[in-house]
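Entry for the shared binder. Reason: the reviewer on the internal report wants the predicted structure included alongside the sequence.
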Amino acid sequence: MGSNPWYIVGLDNGGTTNNATVLDSSGHYLVPGMAESPSHVREGPGAALQALTTALEQVLEVTGVRRSAVAGIGLDTPGPASADGVISARGSTNFIHPEWGGFDIRTALEDKLGLPVVYSNDANAAALYAHHEYFGPEAMRRSSVSAIVGTGLGGAVVESGHVVRGACGMAGELGHITLPPGGLLEDGQPLPGCNCGNVCDVESIASLTGIERNLLPHWLTRFTDHPLAAEPLPYAAKALRSYAERDDPMALAIFEQQAKALGMLFTMASNFTDPHAYFLGGGVVAARPRFRDWLLERVREHTVLRVEQQRVAVFALVPDLDMAGARGAAIAARDVLRLRASGD
C-alpha cells in the first residue's frame, strides 16, 4: 500500500444477497448506496465464492476502479465462524449446505481472487463502521460497545478504533452473556432458552428468535384477545414491530423487556470496558423514528452508569445499517493491510 492511490473492496455476504462497497486511500466510499447481487450461499461454497467474485467485478465496474489498483478485500459473513473465517462445523442459519461445515471461506476467496482477504463477522463489521462513522478523526482514541439485534444478537467491543477479537476470535459474543432473571422477567414468566443452550442470555430475550420462542408465547397469555394470538408465531414475531410503532400495549411491553435486557448488558459493559459509546443496531434502525428513538431511550434508561460515566457516554444507533457491514469490513481490511505493510 504505497504512495499511489489504492482501494479496498468490502464484501458483505448475507443469506440471500451480497452487498459491496469500495473504500479509497483517502477514506471515502465510492458507492453511495447499495451494490447488491445474489449470494447463492444455500447452494454451497462453490456457488457462493463465484457470487462473491461477481459482486467484486460488478462494484469495480460501477466505480470505474481497475482491479490492479485493489490492495485487498474485506469480507464479512454471519457466524458462527472463527476469527480467520472458518465456518463452524455445525454450520449456521445461512450456511446450511453440508459443505459449509468447517469451510475456510477467507482462504478460499483469497485463492480464488488472488488478493489478500481480511475476514470479519457481520456484527463486528457493522460495529466497526458505527464507531468510525460516529467518532471520525477521534475513532482511534475512542472505545465503544455495540449490540446488533436481528434473528440473533450480535455484538462487538471496539477499543482504540479496533475490534477486540480475543484469543479464539470469540470476544464480543454479547448475545450469549447470561442475565439475572430478577428484575427482568415477570412473576411466573418461564426462563427463556437460547439455541446455544444457555438460559436467560441476552439473545434469548433481545432478538427476533427470542420474541418468537420466549416472549410472545408468554405475553399472549396476558393479552389473550390480541390480533397476533391468531397468527403463527413466526409471522407474529416479525409483525410485532409494526404494532409497537402504533403504540400497541403488548408490543411495547415486549420491547420494554428487550430494552431492560440490553440495558443490563450495557451496564455490565460499563463496568468491564467503560466505553465512550453504546451503539444499538439491527431492525430497529429501519423502524419509524418515534419508536426507534423510544427504544434507544428505554435502553439508555435501563443502563446503570456512574455519574462520571453519564457525563461522557453516548447512546446512538448504528448508521446506514444496510451498508454498515460492507463498509466495516473494508475498514477492518484497510487497518490489517496497513499493519502488514508497515511490518508490525
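Summary line for the report: Residues 123 and 241 are 21 Å apart (CA to CA).
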